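=== RUN LOG ===
request id: a7f3
mode: sequence -> structure
chains: 1
length: 420
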Amino acid sequence: MRPLHAAATRAVPRPLSFVTPDAAPGAIDLRSPMSDPHAAGRTLSLNLLLSMLPVLAVLPLLALTLALMGLNWSQMRHTAQREVQQAARTLAIAVDRDLSASVRELQRLAEFPTLVEGDLAPFTEYARKLVAEQAAWSNIVLVDPDGQQLLNTLQRPGEKLPVMLRDHHRSTFRSGAPTLSDLYRNTRDGQPSVAIGVPVRREQVVRWVLSARLNPDELARLLSRQAVNRDLVASILDRNRLLVARNRHHERYFGAPATADLQAAVKQQPSGHATLVTLEGVRVLAAWETLPLGWIVTVGVPQEEIDAPLRRQLGWLALAGLVALGLSLAMSLSLARRLERGVAAAIDDAQALAGGREPPHRFSRVRELDSLFASLRSTRAQLVAAAERESQSDRALRLTAERLQVAVESVDLGTFDWDV
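=== RESULT ===
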């Protein structure tokens, strides 16, 4: 029989660790933050993430504001079109009223007693006085069906009157109705002129045509009086799309053809609106109306004037957006720095906990960070208590082993081999 000596096993203390023996594969050890192979990929800083929040919040708002401004601009555009069209109608009414007044005055003259009787001398003197007093007229002419002038208030003594039957004369002889001429060059000075002709009847037959040459400067002054907006461009065109009058630079453009785009626009429809370019090269929102006598009245408002309110709104919106974005970014960065300091402190506490040290007591104004600090301190207390319990278990096991050894040695206990 050989004695069996039982040896007591001594427990070996284990260091504190956040990784339990039964942790699942791939568990992260807080003592090595980069131990996860997936954590080494691309990461974003807290500052960047928080800085993106106001941008993501402001951009949709700016997009919505821009969409509303676009809708507002479209409505403003339609309103401007209606207003310009109405301005063209109002101006056309004023011009037509002025021309109708000349027609009525000429019709009254056509019924002058001595004229109807064929006694032209008294009528000629009266007509000359009327031209001198009438700013809207510069000459009065009386022609027969062959074009022979019978009266001309600009005739000098001894001067022979010419034979000149113009288109508006023919039209009046043919229709028996008042006619407004297009631009023509008069025989007196060769300058572009316009005139109104009315029939002179005798026994219900058109015997002569009495016409008055209109003063284009008066028409230009009429446009200037009606055009309240100083930037508005107003003009009168004859049937050949030549400029009869204009409220701006009338002397420069009198008799000149209208721009090609305006001619094309008025050719398509008697009234309407379009975006055109003036003779000065200014882009305008234009509208036009055709008069009963055939002339065309046009009105144009610079596009700059229409778009200026929208640009001002866009400018203020951009400024407000930049200010709001800047303030949001500043506040986000300030908050990010505070959170970053709190996260850094939490990392320091976690590393202290992993190294077996007790984390300090920290407080912040962020509830979640305070909860994290408290959790780290609670975890430290739990780990210390677990270590203490493990130490007590080790001491109890050691004491039990020592007592067993004493009992074995005090009793003659052994093992016998029997050979039979």
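=== NOTES ===
The two ends are 14 Å apart (CA to CA).
The CA atoms of residues 228 and 382 lie 88 Å apart.
=== END ===
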